[in-house]
Amino acid sequence: MKSYAIGIDLGGTKILTAMVNRQTGEVLASVKKKTKKEKGPDNIIRKMKESIEELFEETSIKKDEISSIGIGAAGQIDRENGILIGAPNLDCYDLNIRDLIQDYFKIPVYLGNDVEIATIGEMKFGAAKGCDDFVCIFVGTGVGSAIVKNGEIIRGATGTAGEIGHIIVDLNGRPCACGAHGCLEAYASRSAIEKRIEGALKKGRYSVILDYLEKGKSISSSMIRKSIERDDELVKACVDEASEYLSGGIASIINFVNPKLIVLGGGLIEAVDYFYKNTIKKARAKSLPVPASKIEFKKAELGDFSGVVGAAFLEDRKL
Fold it and tell me: Fewer C-beta within 10 Å: the chain N or C terminus?
């Protein structure tokens, strides 16, 4: 068996590509690029190709030593045909990622959902190692999740199970990137917090986050953390609102799925401990007493590398 695989985590703001040792889960080298979805799908494909070529140069590992290229994309996936069906946060639809990358490198390519690959990574080498009954929830540009039962990811009839970000939390609520209204993602993601802060600033509200903002750049999780550390009233209010909605969504998962463990990850969870702690406290309080008394929470342990490590093992989870 070949010892190496390439994992790609294709997200709404960044593309992270890594060379992974499949025996140990170790990331030997990685390349990070901004997604810049506004430049279109061709640019995203080009950046993935460039990242892979950079990894070959940096590690001196040859193509014939690579067992596969695994790609996790933020959206709905046709795994059998390697097509990204719909990804609002990437502005990509019906993109045949597998063929475009596989034909170029002549290496087998496998496609999965971005939270699916992060879940595989955490199950093999991270917070969920040794647990076969859990839910992974990642909060970043969007909100996504994956459900694991008996050690297998539940994909559902169309392969799109686990879209917690698109459960409806307000029937007449905010518009979501998916085209619906009132989705959890429109209230609990980093993007949602960013929009709330920006809206308040435009109305003349003051926030210390202005000290960190740069023209043309979005509000990052680290900016949110620094503002909370300075006890900023506006940022805390926006984060508290997001936590209120996310905890309600998690409570619904606890009551409906009844997992042993919930693993929380993503940029916002990693950077803002205030958000993480408040959310799990509220989720317990909102859940039914019996499942709430048994549920365990953990932060994802692999950080940025959850996805790329999991993607390197997509070949083991064929349809």
Answer: N
